[in-house]
Fold this sequence. Notes:
This protein is mainly β.
Amino acid sequence: MTFRALAVMLAAMPIGAVAASAQSVVIDEGSFAVSVRGRDAGTETFSIRRAGLGSEATVISNAVVELNTEAGRLVLRPLLETLLPDGAASKYQLEATGAEPMELSLNLAGRRFVSRIRTQAGEEEREFLARAETRILEDMVAHHYYFLRGARESSTTPAIEPRTRRQLQLTATTAVEVEVALGSIRVPSRQVTFSASGEERRVWFDRQGRVLRVEVPARGYVAVRKDLVG
């Protein structure tokens, strides 16, 4: 199945629906409550699936992120394809509607990622250096941090933030075993801080590698898993 065909299939499926086909297996799905600078800002509903069989298998993630920003309502629909087993990015597309409309695609072409972006200002093309372990971390999208769950202490992972046109080098700190509050329950988790260009991104993973919480203090961004709340 091509990426475009899979994109159409996933777009037609409700988020949270379990794929009936043996070619699509749900790895994780759920939702986050998002706040910005202490104020409720919206929600993210996502699904991560393994698609295909054997050596041709990939992981596909998609989401609907609905946000209330200073500029107005913004809806993000990211669709990401990653390679097994490590989660390195291969293809990505994003549709943004509302306050900041945008259509974006990012494709691996040899030693570079080629990005095509369409906004109200026009069209542009950008290139990013491609490394085998490159991750996609979209701004204001929490579930993408799932693909950093295997980062080792002091390791550096290249990442691209497509909507902001940023290329990052994320350095992981020592993982700390802590409990994270999800509603009325406290869940054992592993907290890892990723640093890039003086900006920290704090991520809490559970024992299955699922993302429970994401904080980007410099932006006042917090996403907390809500489908697991007790």
